[in-house]
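Q: My labmate handed me this sequence with no annotations at all. I'd like to see what the chain might look like in three dimensions before we decide whether it's worth expressing. Could you predict it?
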Amino acid sequence: EDFLNLIFKAMMKDSLNSSHPVSSAVQSSEQIEEMFDALSYIKGASLLMMLKHYLTKDVFQAGIEVYLHNHKYGSAQSDDLWDSMNEITNGTLDVKKLMKTWILQKGFPLVTVVRQGKNISVQQEKFLYHVEIENWTSDSSYLWHIPLTYITSSCNFTHCTKAYLLDQKSGT
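A: Here is what I predict for the chain of 172 residues:
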């Protein structure tokens, strides 16, 4: 419950146009200090939990093990974790491409779901809690790769969860 409260606080900050991406290039020590705030840490942890749920616990764990093995006694670049996850998924999913949409953009998406008979339509747009006129920028170019999981009436949640990757503005 404590972590969930932290997530909601981070989302509130991230829903402002004055937010910042989890990862970005920096030119000064002041910019480095600004990067290491609660938003970066809590959003980063939430994104790892999202990825773990989407890949499954075993696949995620294997990716972490590859990452740690490949970089023991050394340093790592920002893409090295995603490359390790790609190695484990054997090209079935471009984890780096998926995660870059989350860590290189500020904010998060609002997903609208509409059921029409047996079809489910989903649409994404950038969520803004409060528009600050002096910091406002257009958000039409924002696009996330959103892993959506669902079950059908013939399944239960633990045995046949299905997944859909929304990597466009809308999908069915």
